[in-house]
Design brief:
Blueprint: H1 3-32, H2 38-68, H3 74-80, H4 83-153, E1 170-171, E2 177-178, H5 180-187, H6 198-204, H7 211-214
Helix pairs in contact: 1-2, 2-3, 2-4
Length: 215
């Protein structure tokens, strides 16, 4: 048999097998109901409708050309060639196109807008969370800086401080005896301004005491 005559029916039956697998794949995915996005489910429904349309058309014309080459009864071709039957794949194409348009208008566009709004809300939530985290980090850094400044500014003397009963020197952590003012100045930020109290003035500098105070 001429290869050219067999090419059309063979190609159509190959298309029938391929589109049958594709159509069944879409149906299984839809029936599993494991898809997280309704948007993807709608897309699969549209693809399934188009796959069924293509499968039916391939099956119709596959039987047509197979009957012409004599591989199946010629009566099938005579049946399919009738004008009222030729309209079937054409009507099916129109119905599939209208159905897809309805799905696009009634489900695709609303779900697309819903997905866009959900994405926008997610982005806004992320931006808000990032701002809050940055603000918390800034407050934390400010608090740490304040604590560090406080630790640098405030130095306390802790524990028992040995002090001489006679000269009043104190012993530091290294065992050296130092003047009280020198030790405190080394351990803190306190600075001293030397003066003389009234009792020491009377004791050491009596000549500077006014006479009416002696009386």
């Amino acid at each position: 048999m001429d290869f050219i005559k067999l090419f059309s029916p063979v190609s159509y039956w190959l298309l029938i097998l391929l589109w049958s697998w594709i159509f069944l794949f879409y149906l299984r995915r839809i029936r599993q109901r494991k898809l997280e996005s309704r948007f993807i489910t709608t897309l699969l429904v549209i693809l399934a409708i188009d796959a069924f349309r293509t499968l039916f058309e391939s099956l119709y014309f596959g039987a047509w050309y197979t009957s012409l080459v004599g591989l199946i009864p010629r009566a099938i071709h005579d049946f399919l060639i009738r004008p009222e039957n030729v309209l079937i794949p054409k009507v099916l194409n129109v119905v599939a196109a209208v159905l897809i348009i309805v799905i696009v208008l009634r489900r695709w566009f609303p779900q697309e807008e819903e997905e866009r709004e959900r994405h926008r809300s997610h982005v806004l939530a992320l931006e808000k969370e990032i701002r809050e985290r940055k603000q918390a980090e800034a407050e934390k850094e400010n608090l740490i800086a304040e604590l560090q400044r406080a630790l640098e500014e405030v130095k306390t003397l802790r524990g028992i401080l040995p002090i001489c009963s006679f000269c009043k020197k104190v012993r530091d952590d290294e065992g050296y005896w130092r003047q009280v003012d020198v030790y405190i100045k080394q351990q803190t930020d306190v600075d001293f301004s030397h003066s003389v109290c009234p009792e020491c003035v009377r004791k050491h500098y009596p000549e500077f005491i006014p006479r009416h105070e002696d009386d």
